[in-house]
Amino acid sequence: MQDDFDSSGRFDARYVAFVAALEAMRPRLHRYCARMTGSVFDGEDIAQEAIFEAYRKLELYDSALPLAPWITRIAHNRCIDFLRHQKVRSSVESGSVDMDEAREPAEPLGPWIDRALENLVTHLPPKERACILLKDVFDYSLAETAELVGSTVGGVKAALKRARSKLASLPPAAAPRASKTPELHLLYIERFNRRDWDALRDLIRDDALLRISDVYAGGIKPAYLTTFERMPFPFRLVPGEVDDHAVLMLLGGLAAGDLVSAVIRLDVSDEKIVRIRHYTRCPWLLQPARRLVVDGVRRILNQQVLDACMLA
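Predicted structure:
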């Protein structure tokens, strides 16, 4: 299905309308995927792939049931596949926390986990991670959580007990580390800002892939770069950081001034760009982030800053 997604080309009008109808649930879906994967970018990629899969399987959907849990389950399964592929396993799972000494919080009356603890869930095994997020962050019932993770109510209760005990025993999450801007990023920025598209293409492998949020997924076409010249406002590319990811940030272009209108992530192999991930029109992307740096200046992640990013 991911291969299908990456060869979709420009998404058709029906799919765009389907995506637009899901706008209200996108922040929650992204936040869940971001916490499961430990990355706001991997989380958004998986959320987009899950929505695409849901669209392709609409004939299997029971319209008498709520849409959000169905798509969440598709996203959950993709997160589990991602974790298996990346071989991400917590040291907690191997017994680094002494369960006899771990504190066991009482059964909560409502969402139990706060933002500080939410940042620690990547230390949990995938099932415990999913249960704590679905039950204690997103307030699904025990039965709903069991359905989403493919377990039983008893299994979810046991996973929640283990997860809460482990989280209560963990030290506070370390702040994301600063990322050094890669040399290839600096070259990309320099050539982009002087509009030298031919020199910029020299940095990109011929078979490189491109994703533009909810717009396009496929090979990189020459028009991708020249399209920037048709933007209504002046624009420039600057280095940035989101958590511990070095990224590129488009200032202006689709919005006036120095508002961030896109975040661009480059995948590199053998000193060539093999994939460009262009995130725009998705204001929820940065909401779960813990650290944001734009052109060397760290920005406090308050609502005003978030509202000024990805608005276009």
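Summary: Confidence is low (pLDDT under 50) at residues 88-112.
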